[in-house]
Amino acid sequence: MSNAHIVKSFDEELAQIENLILEMGGIVETQIMESMQALCNRDEELAVKVRKDDKSVDALETRVNELTLRTLALRQPMARDLRSVVCALKVSGNLERIGDYAKNIAKRSLVLNEATRIVSAEKTINRMSKLVQVMVADVLNAYVSKDIAMADELLLRDEEVDHMHNTLFRELLTYMMESSSNITPCMHMLFIAKNLERMGDYVTSIAEQIHYLETGSIPESDRPKSDMTSQIAG
Q1: To the nearest 5 percent, what fractions of the chain are helix, strand and coil?
Q2: CA end-to-end span of the chain, whole Å?
Q3: What span, in angstroms and rounded, lies between the C-alpha atoms of 89 and 83?
Q4: Domain locations in the chain as residue ranges
Q5: Nearest to 46 by CA among 34, 56, 33, 54
Q6: Residue 14 in 3-state DSSP?
Q7: CA 115 to CA 191: how far, in whole Å?
Q8: 59-74: string of b/e by CB count within 10 Å (b at 16+)?
Q9: pLDDT digit string (tens) for 184-225?
Q10: How far apart are CA 170 and CA 232, in angstroms?
Q11: How would you class 178 by CB atoms within 10 Å of its CB: exposed for 0-12, middle for 13-18, buried for 19 or more?
Q12: What Cα–Cα distance (Å) separates residue 51 from each residue in 17, 58, 105, 126, 167?
């Protein structure tokens, strides 16, 4: 087998893996959007759909894992080629985790259907979700185009998600102190906000992998982290 043929076959395998990752990403983006619609519209049917769609994400991750491991075993790539395969493996894992968080939001929305609405908190959470959804779309674009500048910019953008999480944490604590009847819905809202904050973290993890893929090193500066909820006393 000629070297040119080997290179072409490897490139085709990588393209197949990337297409699967993009398919995963598209489903995950929809999960984020629909989980929030289910929450805000009290849409039980949509919440159930989000949870079912997670099986598709899991199946795609399994397929990516199989293809990447097969490629590693048969091609034994080196240098950047090796980083490409390892990066794909990690990106798919991060997307799967983001999908899990969207599924959890949908699950909690079903409980909140029967609870007192906290409209201001819902609006903040909705803004957080839209920001995270755009971050997921942008990091997938950065992954396909191997755009380091966009990937590095996403590391900074995650700070806004953290700040919104901090603000919402304080707001919900206030509601819980005002009335015991607010405790249950507020706790679920806190978990939903935390899920969104963690999604942002996984986006930045993907961004770091893109940087590593292109440069062979992780970003020099520490990832900005502004989540202060563990230090808020109430």
Answers
A1: 85, 0, 15
A2: 67
A3: 10
A4: 3-231
A5: 34
A6: helix
A7: 15
A8: ebbebbbebbeebeee
A9: 999 999 999 999 999 999 999 999 999 999 998 887 665 556
A10: 8
A11: exposed
A12: 24, 11, 9, 19, 28
pTM score, two decimals? 0.90
Q: Which two tokens stand for residue 196?
A: 């969104």
Highest CATH level, class, for 3-231: mainly alpha
Three-class SS of 30-97: HHHHHHHHHHHHCCHHHHHHHHHHHHHHHHHHHHHHHHHHHHHHHHCCCHHHHHHHHHHHHHHHHHHH
CA dihedral 121, 104, 202, 191 (to 10 degrees): 40
- CA–CA distance, 76 with 71 (Å, rounded to integer): 7
DSSP character string of 90-119 = HHHHHHHHHHHHHHHHHHHHHHHTTS---H
| Residues 14 and 85: beta-carbon distance below 8 Å | yes
Tokens of 146: 């191997």
Read off the pLDDT of residues 61-98 as tens digits, 9 standing for 90 and up: 999 999 999 999 888 888 888 999 999 999 999 999 99
